Amino acid sequence: MFGALVIYVLTGGADFGGGIVALLARGPRREAIRELVFHALAPIWEANHVWLIVAIVLLFVAFPKVFAAVTTALHIPLTLMLIGIVLRGAAFVFAQYDEETSRARYWWQRVFMWSSLLTPVTFGVVVGAVASGRIRVEPQTGLVQVGFVEGWWALFPFLVGGFAATLFAYLASVYLLLETEDVGIREWLRKLALGLGVALGVGAWVTLWWAQHETLTVYDRLVHSPLAQPFHLVTGVAALLALLALWRRRYTLARISAATQAVAIMTGWGLAQYPALLVPDMTIANSAAPDTVLRPLLIALILGSVVLIPSFGYLYWVFKQHTLAVRQRAPQ
């Protein structure tokens, strides 16, 4: 489940980040940058949502009490997130197939870009609320002890939301460097990626600093957890390596380093929260479904992975041949 969520951040998250990059595009190459984003996303954006679906289904089947608590306490941000996903998908299709001179196409592009910002922010709000300890649950019954707003209406979840949006945009800007051979667009993306990389580091420190004032549980787990600390080190090294690679225009290395940084961030958070699924009341042990459910679920997951993972590899191989060609010609 956690692995599916990490893959979704690397793939689907970067897709949403592409919309943010399009929203940030300025200057004489603005339309060309936006067309690049649409072209890069077109073959694979819908398929990447599979990983989010896998994570949600696993949570629903394997940990039904946690699923019920999260969807109850975080009903509002989850609804906004789903609205953003639907609007973004619909707007992307309408903008792609409408006439280039159509006024409707102009507005569909705006819907696509703004919904691409809304979804990562609400995704981060959900993650921040889950980790914050603000959602209290009676473990035996699974009854939520807070209302629809108290669990997420605080500064910390919104700081995590801003951090998530910055991370997604950062990944997208780095990925897009190998999607084009236009020197001007590539230089604009490089500068954007450098700025977002610095903003990501600042955002991480601000979010961590505020956690000790609002959600001490999160702060203690992130700072003192022996499981999470090695991944904080990996995150820092990968971040510096990515920025250095961007500065020296080593775009393949930058892509690998940025993806490693994202994986380390997610893994550090997951290990810091372990074994809690919903801090502090719901853990893996006290919220898991019976073994009669978990065993067939595990079998289905293994069999499904045998089909799903090679299929995704083939999908990317078929539709990203241009990217591979650009990567071979780009500085290594």
Automatic annotation (TrEMBL):
Question: Tell me, which GO biological process terms does this entry list?
Answer: aerobic electron transport chain
Entry's InterPro entries?
Cyt-d_oxidase_su2
Q: Name one GO molecular function term.
A: oxidoreductase activity, acting on diphenols and related substances as donors, oxygen as acceptor
GO cellular component labels? cytochrome complex; plasma membrane
Where located? Cell membrane
Name the protein family. Answer: Belongs to the cytochrome ubiquinol oxidase subunit 2 family.
In its UniProt entry, what is this protein called?
Cytochrome d ubiquinol oxidase subunit II
Q: Which organism is it from?
A: Ardenticatena maritima
The coding gene here is: cydB
